[in-house]
Amino acid sequence: MSTAPTPAEDLLFPPPPEFTAQANVGAREYERAAADPEAFWAEQARRLQWDEPFTTVFDGSTLPTAQWFTGGRLNVAVNCVDRHVAAGRGDKVALHWEGEPGDSRTITYAQLKDEVCRLANALEELGVGHGDRVVLYLPVLPETIVTTMACARIGAVVSLVFGGFSAEALRFRVEDTGAKLLVCTDGQFRRGTAVAVKAAADEAVAGLEHVEHVLVLRRTGERTPDVPWTAGRDVWWHELVERQSTEHVAPSFDAENPLFIIYTSGTTGKPKGLVHTSGGYLTHTSWSHWAVFDVKDDDVYWCQADLAWVTAHSYEMYGPLSNGVTQVIYEGSPLTPHPGRHFEVIEKYGVTIYYTAPTLVRTFMKHGPELPARFDLSSLRLLGSVGEAINPEAWTWLHREVGGGRCPIVDTWWQSETGAAVVAPLPGVTPLKPGSGTVPLPGLAATVVDEAGAECAPGQTGVLVITRPWPGMARTVWRDHARFVKSYWEPYAAQGWYLAGDAATKDADGYIWIGGRIDDVLNVSGHRLSSIELESALVSHPRVAEAAVVGAPDETTGQRIVAFVITRGGAPADDPGDSALADLLRAHVAQQIGPVARPRDVVVVPDLPKTRSGKIMRRLMADMTAGRGGGDVTSLQDETALAAVETAWAAYTASR
Ligand code: ATP
Ligand code: MG
After folding, report:
1. How do residues 621-639 score in pLDDT, each as one tens digit?
2. Where are the alpha helices (DSSP H) in 234-349?
3. How many Å apart are CA 293 and CA 338, to the nearest integer?
4. Residue 656 — very low, low, confident or very high, per pLDDT cuts 50/70/90?
5. Which atom of ligand 1 is nearest to 270's Cα?
6. CB–CB of 621/550 below 8 Å?
7. Does residue 4 carry a pLDDT above 70?
8. Which atom, in ligand 1's list, is nearest to the CA of 268?
9. Over the stretch 314-364, which tens digit does the pLDDT of each residue have?
10. Is the pTM of this model over 0.90?
11. CA 388 to ligand 1 center in whole angstroms
């Protein structure tokens, strides 16, 4: 390349005027919220249906466990389902469900209400009530949403576990929650094959006295015969649920009634079970979904996350349902039966808003722009990204090849802990910069500070903190309040700030750039470098499809940069230490960021270890380069990816 590329922070995509003209939220929202955040949130809370109005907006006397909308009573399921039927919108489609093998179902809000009521009655018949925990080990099915809503309806605390998790990972969550009920299927479809899962569910609950029943939904049927059965404990869904009444009187619960427990993805260690409550969580989730995704009555919205991730809780269940939106949900792998499956689904349902993840965009990129070009994607009007910082290269590809250059991309930074989006654009207002979540949403206050709590200068790497309590914030870590206080609140106890655990910088326009986890920041000869920035530089090279950067211990520089790269075209590397490629990439990174950022080691790998939610597990690769072992691997998507990286690393180091 002869001329230096424009740095991502200088690329600016102002909202298209046509988009701004119809947007739900205008520019004044920032000022209005800043002038009186509590009044702003009270106004958003009133978008919901309360059985008893709240008397206090915010009570900080019990911080860090904040209380929002005290005195108020509501039923979350009524807000998400019944309310729309009562308003005469029962015939509106709530869910277009697409199964992996190609089966599909369409469910209206009225039908959803009947199903939720049936299941609420069924749960009560099983002895499940207010405060009891229910664990769901289910794929993306309408019943998964029905069960989640039924739990909310009766005040049971739900915890969804990814259906692809092992028995061991499931057992940890069942045990930790002390669940009374586990809901699972006979089997699941995984990349085109029917896989039996009931045996894994049995293993997960074996000997756990608190589990009274296992409710089993038939999904794979004949294809996974001989379902192991424990009489008295196990119950077939179709035998219990289908005979229930569609009438159920919903009680109302306190605004601070626990709604669900969500386990973090385990990128940094043992997953934490965050507890979210009702009034504040639903207020933040519902409003931000409406404002950030600009949802309208005629939208067809698709969040492609698995229902067990926090993304789906807020933006595939509670958020969109509370806004009465029509959604697509898809059961299977994005690459089954072909890599264009998502685009096919977008075309089939005329999806207008598509919320995805950087890992998937990079996967699509490997197939080239011909892949999306084969489908009619003209229905799309807005795109979203979550889970990791999106590399500017992936952002521009998504914008151009999928969004046809016309769709704003809302890059939403948030966490299991925050409940809903914190740093994200308003698509009709905020000019976008590829790779930045832009600025804190109205009503939210976040910034970048150094260890002592001083605001960082533009470009200086620090940590992201949230400086004012917000309604969607988690209230505790389930059965480990000390961990909640210690992980998030102790570091800035003096200021009362929440430490997010992510490194970040702000640019001169106040835009926030996430640089990776605090632990993933590299220190090379005293220079603090962000793993994400380094990876984005590598991914911007035409030969690189994906990259993971970690710091390895080094006697002279403190740390040295080790880059693991997957080359484009996906050909398996027979030479992990391809020195010609390494030289090219070193020069490229030096030109993009500076000579100090040049990776010392470049190792070509066939795959990268990721969490089930598709995030790169840098921690395990850092352990490997430092000669440490024994990190928690229960969140790994695929252990063979780690093994392949280990093999490549061994071959690489042996050849040095
Ligand atoms: P654990 O806390 O167990 O390590 P996790 O942090 O991956 O797991 P989540 O709560 O699902 O679990 O993910 C939140 C994290 O994901 C954020 O802290 C951030 O690092 C990353 N993240 C999410 N969205 C974005 C985004 N839009 N831009 C940058 N990073 C993001
Ligand atoms: Mg985290």
Report:
1. 999 999 988 788 888 888 8
2. 237-240, 279-292, 310-312, 319-322, 341-349
3. 28
4. confident
5. 3
6. yes
7. no
8. 4
9. 999 999 999 999 999 999 999 999 999 999 999 999 999 999 999 999 999
10. yes
11. 6
DSSP state letters, 613-649: TS-B-HHHHHHHHTT------TTBS-HHHHHHHHHHH
Mean pLDDT of the chain: 95
Distances (CA, A) of 11 to 323, 398, 409, 433, 630: 33, 15, 14, 6, 42
Protein residue with least CA distance to atom 17, ligand 1: 415
User: By mean pLDDT, which of 46-50, 495-499, 613-617, 643-647 is the weakest?
Assistant: 613-617
Mutate to test the pocket of ligand 1, among 165, 360, 414, 610 (most ligand atoms within 8 A of CB): 414
The pLDDT of residue 633: 83
Q: Is residue 584 very low, low, confident or very high in pLDDT (cuts 50, 70, 90)?
A: very high
Residue from 160, 267, 520 whose mutation best tests the ligand 1 pocket (most atoms within 8 A of CB): 267
pLDDT for residue 6? 64
The pLDDT, as a whole number, for residue 3 is: 47
Percent of the chain beyond pLDDT 70? 98
**Residue bearing tokens 């997957």:** 566
Residue nearest to atom 14 of ligand 1 (CA): 415
Rounded to an integer, what distance in angstroms lies between the CA atom of residue 472 and that of residue 416?
Answer: 10
Which helix (H) or strand (E) segment holds residue 506: the answer is: strand 498-506
On the question of pLDDT at 471 being above 50, the answer is: yes
Residue 2: predicted pLDDT: 38
Angle at alpha carbon of residue 191, lines to 190 and 192, rounded to 5°:
95
Q: By alpha-carbon position, which residue is closest to atom 8 of ligand 1? A: 265
SS3 370: helix
The 3-state DSSP class for residue 254 equals: strand
Sheet holding 234-236, edge to edge: 234-236, 213-217, 181-185, 133-138, 157-162, 258-263, 273-277, 476-477
Q: Could you say which ligand is closest to the alpha carbon of residue 263? A: 1
Task: Give residue 387 CA to ligand 1 midpoint distance, Å.
Answer: 5
What's the rounded Cα separation, in Å, for the pair 200 and 412?
A: 34
- Closest CA to ligand 1's atom 23: 387
> Ligand 2 center to residue 547 CA distance, Å?
21
Tokens (6 digits) for 615: 């995030």
Q: How far is the CA of 415 from the centre of ligand 1 (A)?
A: 5
Phi, psi of 652 (to 5 degrees): -65, -50
What span, in angstroms and rounded, lies between the C-alpha atoms of 304 and 39? 33
Report whether pLDDT(104) > 60. Answer: yes
For residue 406, the CA-to-ligand 1 centroid distance in Å is 28
Is the distance from CB of 461 to CB of 530 less than 8 angstroms?
A: yes
- Report the pocket of ligand 1 as residue ranges, CB < 6 Å: 264-268, 271, 310, 386-389, 411-413, 415-416, 437, 500-502, 514, 517, 615
- Kindly identify the ligand whose nearest atom is closest to the C-alpha of 269: 1
Mutation to probe ligand 1, out of 415, 610, 611 (largest number of atoms < 8 A from CB): 415
> What are 392-446's pLDDT values in tens digits?
999 999 999 999 999 999 999 999 999 999 999 999 999 999 999 999 999 999 9
Closest-CA residue, ligand 1 atom 2, reads 264
| Candidate from 361, 388, 448, 612 with most ligand 1 atoms within 8 A of CB, to mutate | 388
Phi, psi of 59, deg, nearest 5 = -125, 110
Question: Average of pLDDT values for 374-387?
Answer: 98
